[in-house]
């Protein structure tokens, strides 16, 4: 088994407090790391680096763990730019626009959907994302949800069944019947292609009781639960997620003190999606309050054609710092190790020994440049599982 020494690292972010400066980022200056078998075998000061079969000098640049994007909706067709323009002119965002994408997605071929997923995953990879979760939710029939997840599974192991995204038009007068479909034939068809089950628990989507039923059915089918909640207004979703011990609850824009306390005590990860607030002109979540209360926070893109059509984790890091009052260190940690926690993963999101060797070389001397230089393409190289740069 050959080994690779990545050397000449001006600043290495390991996300391991036991390394380097002892901070949560575990920053090592004048650093190196050794990759063997697709994993980090060693990380530390360059002067102490062991020998390896080959080497790659990054020329004094900063290296950070690959971003873990724990919330995206990439299996879709169509375009909602007119809806975006209308929002920028003052039309408020609502969940109803999802139905536009549902119609386009149902009409698309498997090949068109797969090509769209591949294009967006490649776009994410160029910007430093090495792990991505992909949801269904734009088919809302047994056939279309199952094919969406089969297509998503070609790109990632982190696939999420979101049949309970909204009630489709054909069930507008029978939402209970649609929940029965989701928890019955649709779940049966989708479970073999999914790791997770999700529900949009929100006014205009699904109630807490409906969400509970969907999550219980998913658990019985062997899927782990997560939840969209408290995006459009206060609601019961966050409390439900904490009560059920879900791994993560996403959006968390409108929270009460009781919601924050529940998140802090349950350990459920609060996944924040600043691209949504940027794209909808909605209030940003109070990340500062969550972190100060001891809540574990993740940052993800929510890449989708309606409310957050960005694939850029660096942009979301910059928004988290500027608009949600996170420090650059907190935002980077949330976009890497926080995202890994939101997916229940321990081998990604950090660069300590034993981690998968997913690393991003920044054309910058410090990780702070992710927020300091928003919109600038500072990702120079991305190594996944220690693969050599192109």
Mind explaining what this structure looks like?
- With 390 residues, this protein is of the alpha/beta class.
- It has two domains: 3-66 and 349-383, Urease, subunit C, domain 1 (Roll), CATH 2.30.40.10; 68-342, Alpha-Beta Barrel (TIM Barrel), CATH 3.20.20.
- The protein is 35% helix and 22% strand.
- The chain is built from 14 helices and 15 strands.
- The chain has helices at residues 81-88, 98-107, 110-126, 142-152, 175-190, 208-220, 237-244, 257-266, 274-280, 287-292, 313-324, 328-335, 337-342, 369-372, and strands spanning 3-13, 27-36, 39-45, 54-57, 62-65, 67-69, 129-135, 158-164, 196-201, 224-229, 248-251, 269-272, 297-299, 359-362, 379-383.
- The strands form two sheets. The chain has an eight-stranded parallel beta sheet with strand order 6-7-8-9-10-11-12-13. Strands 1, 2, 3, 4, 5, 14 and 15 form a seven-stranded mixed beta sheet that branches.
- The model has no long low-confidence stretch (mean pLDDT 96).
């Amino acid at each position: 088994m050959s080994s690779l020494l990545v050397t000449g690292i001006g600043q290495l972010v390991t996300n391991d407090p036991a390394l380097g400066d002892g901070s949560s980022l575990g920053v090592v200056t004048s650093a190196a790391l050794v990759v063997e078998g697709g994993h980090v075998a060693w990380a530390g000061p360059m002067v102490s680096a062991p020998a390896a079969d080959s080497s790659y000098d990054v020329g004094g640049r900063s290296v950070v763990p690959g971003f873990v994007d724990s919330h995206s909706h990439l299996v879709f067709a169509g375009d909602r730019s007119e809806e975006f323009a209308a929002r920028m002119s003052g039309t408020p965002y609502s969940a109803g626009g999802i139905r536009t994408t549902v119609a386009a997605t149902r009409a698309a071929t498997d090949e068109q959907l797969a090509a769209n997923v591949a294009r967006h995953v490649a776009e994410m990879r160029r910007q430093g994302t090495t792990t991505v979760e992909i949801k269904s939710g734009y088919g809302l029939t047994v056939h279309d949800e199952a094919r969406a997840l089969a297509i998503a599974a070609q790109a990632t192991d982190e696939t999420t069944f979101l049949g309970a995204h909204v009630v489709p038009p054909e069930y507008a007068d029978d939402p209970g019947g649609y929940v029965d479909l989701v928890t019955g034939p649709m779940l049966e068809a989708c479970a073999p292609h999914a790791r997770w089950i999700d529900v949009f628990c929100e006014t205009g989507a699904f109630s807490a009781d409906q969400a509970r039923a969907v999550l219980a059915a998913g658990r019985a089918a062997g899927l782990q639960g997560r939840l969209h909640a408290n995006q459009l207004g206060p609601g019961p979703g966050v409390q439900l997620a904490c009560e059920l011990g879900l791994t993560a609850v996403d959006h968390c824009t409108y929270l009460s003190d009781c919601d924050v306390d529940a998140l802090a005590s349950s350990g459920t990860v609060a996944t924040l999606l600043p691209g949504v607030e940027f794209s909808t002109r909605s209030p940003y979540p109070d990340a500062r309050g969550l972190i100060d209360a001891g809540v574990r926070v993740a940052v993800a893109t929510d890449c989708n054609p309606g409310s957050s059509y960005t694939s850029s984790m660096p942009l979301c890091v910059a928004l988290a710092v500027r608009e949600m009052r996170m420090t650059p260190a907190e935002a980077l940690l949330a976009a890497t190790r926080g995202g890994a926690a939101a997916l229940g993963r321990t081998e990604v999101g950090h660069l300590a020994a034993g981690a998968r060797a997913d690393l991003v070389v920044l054309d910058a001397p410090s990780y702070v440049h992710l927020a300091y230089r928003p919109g600038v393409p500072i990702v120079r190289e991305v190594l996944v599982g220690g693969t050599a740069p192109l």
